[in-house]
Design goal:
The complex is a heterodimer of chains A (240) and B (296). Chain A is of the alpha/beta class. Chain A has 8 helices and 10 strands. Classes of the chains: A alpha/beta (240), B mainly alpha (296).
C-alpha cells in the first residue's frame, strides 16, 4: 500500500526533522507511529499528505510515486487526511462540510449521495446534526466530523494526526471506537497519536519515532518488548 | 414653509444616497472577496473600477452600443484582466501579506499611467438616452440611471450571495477563505480557486465601474478614491457578509451625501475619512461583530 523510503525532511536549512525514514503501511491494517513530543510525527503525516515537501526520499502509494504531487492531487490518488489542529469550516453546516469532503467525486451526484449515506452510517452522531453549524459542535464531535469528512473522498489510506488531542477521556474512547469501526470496514489507517495506549491497542503495526529517526517497527506482537522498554525510557525522561 | 422645503430636500438627498449606497456596496464586494479568500489587500482595486469605466466608455463610443449592453461586455473583459493579473502579479506572492500590497501598488501605478496615456486626464462621462430622466414619486425624483444602478447592484450582490452559499463552487471558495490548508487536504484546488476568486472580484469591479461611468464623470487618477470608499465599507461591515456590505455602502453614501450638503462638496472624501477614523476608534471590529468574532 504505502511505502516510504529514505525520507528526509527539513524545516530550515540543515535542521532535519525526519532523517532517512523508511516504513511500510500494509493494506486494510492500522499502522501507528508513536513517539515523544518533537519526534517528527506530525511532520511525517504532513509530508505524506503533501503539505510539506521532503528534501530526499520517496513516497509510493500502490506503486505510484506521490511525493512530487500537490496535496490536492494526492487526495485524488487516495489519501485522506485529518490534521492535528481543528480544521472544520466553522461557519458551514455539518452537511456542507461533509459534501466538501467529497470534492473529488462532485461530478457524480449519485456517488456523492451514496458516499454521504455510507459515511453517516459509519458516523451516526452526525446524522441528527447535519443542519448545525460545524463551529457549534463540541470539540469531540468536530473531530468526528473531520474524520467523517476525510472519509467522503473514499480514501485508500486515511492519515490521522493526533485524533485524541484535546478530547475528554470519554470522547477519546468514542473516537477510537470509530477508528475500530473503520478498520472493520477495511480502511487502511496511518495513525499518529500521543495517547500511546489507545494508539497501540488499535494498531496492527507500530513504528517508534524518536528525534526524527525510526527506532524500531513492525508487527505489534513482534516488537512488544523493545516497545515496552522505549516507553519506559520516555516516561522516565518525562518524570525526571 | 421654508422648513417644509428643507424637509423635502433632506428626504430627496436621502433617497439619492440610498440609490448610490447599493453601488458603493458593489464597489467594496470585490475587495472583500479577495481579502477574505486570499488575505490580500488589493491596492489596485479602485483602478480596476476606473479601468472598467473606461472600457465601458470606449466600447460605447467605438461600437455605438447601448451603454447598459456595453456593461455586460465589460464584466468578462474585466474578469479576464483579473485572471491575467492573478497569474502574472499575485500568484507567487500569496503566502506573504506585504508583498501583494507592494505589487498591487505597482499595478496601480501602471494602470493609472496606461489610462492617462490612452485617454488623457480629461474627465469623461457617458450620456445615455435616460441620463436626464427621473421617476416621479410625489414631490420626490428618483433619477433613472441611479435607480437602474441600484437595482443592478443589489441584484448582482444577491446573485453573488446565492453563488457563495448555495453552490458547490461557492462553498469551496468559502472553504478556502476559512482554512486553505484544510481545503487542500480535501482535494480542493486552492490555487485555481484563488485565480477564480480574483477573476470574479475584478469582474464585480468591472460591473461597478460600468455602472459608475453612467452616473459620474471619471478620470484616470480616481482609483484610490474608490479604494478608500471600499476600505471604509469593509471597516464598517467586515468581510464575510454581503448584507452587511450593503448596509456599509448605505452608511457611507448617506454620510457623504449629507456631509457634502452641509459642509460643501469638497468635503465629500473628508467625510469618508472621518467615518473610517471613527469606526477604527469606536468599533474596530466593524458595526456588526465583536472583535473576538472577527479574529476568528
Amino acid at each position: 500500500m504505502l511505502k516510504i523510503e529514505n525520507l528526509t525532511v527539513e524545516y530550515r536549512r540543515d535542521i532535519e526533522i525526519l532523517k532517512n525514514i523508511s516504513l511500510f503501511v500494509p493494506e486494510n491494517k492500522v499502522t501507528a507511529v508513536i513517539g515523544p513530543n518533537g519526534a517528527g510525527k506530525s511532520t511525517l503525516v504532513k509530508t505524506i499528505a503533501g503539505l510539506i515537501r521532503p528534501k530526499r526520499g520517496s513516497i509510493t502509494l500502490d506503486g505510484v510515486r506521490i511525493d512530487g504531487m500537490s496535496a490536492e492531487e494526492r487526495v485524488k490518488h487516495g489519501i485522506g487526511v485529518v490534521l492535528q489542529r481543528r480544521s472544520v469550516f466553522p461557519q458551514m453546516t455539518v452537511k456542507e462540510n461533509l459534501m466538501l469532503g467529497g470534492w473529488i467525486i462532485k461530478g457524480d451526484k449519485k456517488a456523492l449521495e451514496e458516499t454521504l449515506e455510507f459515511v453517516l452510517e459509519l458516523f451516526p452522531d452526525l446524522k441528527q446534526r447535519l443542519a448545525l453549524k460545524a463551529g457549534s459542535l463540541s470539540g469531540g464531535l468536530q473531530r468526528v466530523l473531520e474524520i467523517a469528512r476525510a472519509m467522503m473522498s473514499r480514501p485508500k489510506l486515511l492519515l490521522l494526526d493526533e485524533p485524541s488531542a484535546g478530547l475528554s477521556p470519554m470522547m477519546v474512547k468514542h473516537v477510537y471506537r470509530l477508528i475500530d469501526n473503520l478498520k472493520k470496514n477495511n480502511t487502511t489507517i496511518f495513525l499518529v497519536d500521543q495517547n500511546i495506549r489507545q494508539c497501540v491497542d488499535a494498531a496492527d503495526y507500530v513504528y517508534v519515532l524518536e528525534l526524527g529517526e525510526i527506532k524500531c517497527g513492525g508487527r505489534k506482537e513482534e516488537i512488544s518488548e523493545s516497545l515496552f522498554n522505549l516507553i519506559k525510557e520516555w516516561l522516565y525522561l518525562e518524570r525526571s | 414653509m421654508l422648513a417644509g422645503i428643507e424637509v423635502i430636500y433632506i428626504i430627496q438627498l436621502f433617497l439619492g444616497a440610498i440609490l448610490l449606497g447599493g453601488l458603493y456596496a458593489l464597489v467594496a464586494v470585490g475587495l472583500a472577496l479577495i481579502f477574505g479568500v486570499m488575505r490580500i489587500l488589493n491596492i489596485a482595486h479602485g483602478d480596476f473600477i476606473i479601468l472598467s469605466a473606461y472600457i465601458t466608455f470606449w466600447l460605447s463610443q467605438i461600437y455605438k452600443l447601448d451603454p447598459l449592453l456595453t456593461i455586460i461586455l465589460t464584466i468578462p473583459i474585466a474578469s479576464l484582466v483579473g485572471f491575467v493579473t492573478y497569474l502574472s502579479v499575485i500568484r507567487g506572492l500569496t503566502k506573504s501579506f506585504e508583498a501583494p500590497i507592494v505589487s498591487s501598488f505597482g499595478l496601480l501605478l501602471i494602470l493609472q499611467a496606461s489610462m492617462l496615456i490612452a485617454w488623457s486626464g480629461d474627465p469623461r462621462s457617458i450620456v445615455t438616452p435616460f441620463t436626464a430622466e427621473s421617476l416621479v414619486l410625489g414631490p420626490y425624483l428618483l433619477p433613472l440611471v441611479r435607480l437602474i444602478a441600484f437595482i443592478v447592484s443589489v441584484a448582482a450582490l444577491t446573485l453573488l450571495h446565492y453563488f457563495l452559499n448555495k453552490t458547490y463552487l461557492g462553498r469551496a471558495i468559502k472553504a478556502v477563505s476559512q482554512d486553505s490548508e484544510a481545503a487542500s487536504t480535501l482535494g480542493i484546488p486552492v490555487s485555481r480557486i484563488q485565480a477564480l476568486t480574483f477573476a470574479l472580484s475584478v469582474g464585480m469591479a468591472g460591473l461597478a465601474g460600468g455602472l459608475l461611468s453612467l452616473l459620474l464623470s471619471f478620470t484616470p487618477t480616481l482609483g484610490p478614491e474608490y479604494l478608500l470608499k471600499a476600505l471604509v465599507i469593509l471597516a464598517l461591515s467586515g468581510i464575510g457578509n454581503i448584507l452587511a456590505l450593503l448596509i456599509g455602502g448605505l452608511v457611507l453614501s448617506i454620510g457623504e451625501t449629507y456631509g457634502s450638503f452641509f459642509l460643501g462638496s469638497g468635503y465629500r472624501n473628508v467625510v469618508a475619512y472621518i467615518i473610517l477614523i471613527l469606526i477604527l476608534l469606536l468599533k474596530p471590529a466593524g458595526l456588526f461583530r465583536s472583535l473576538k468574532e472577527r479574529e476568528v
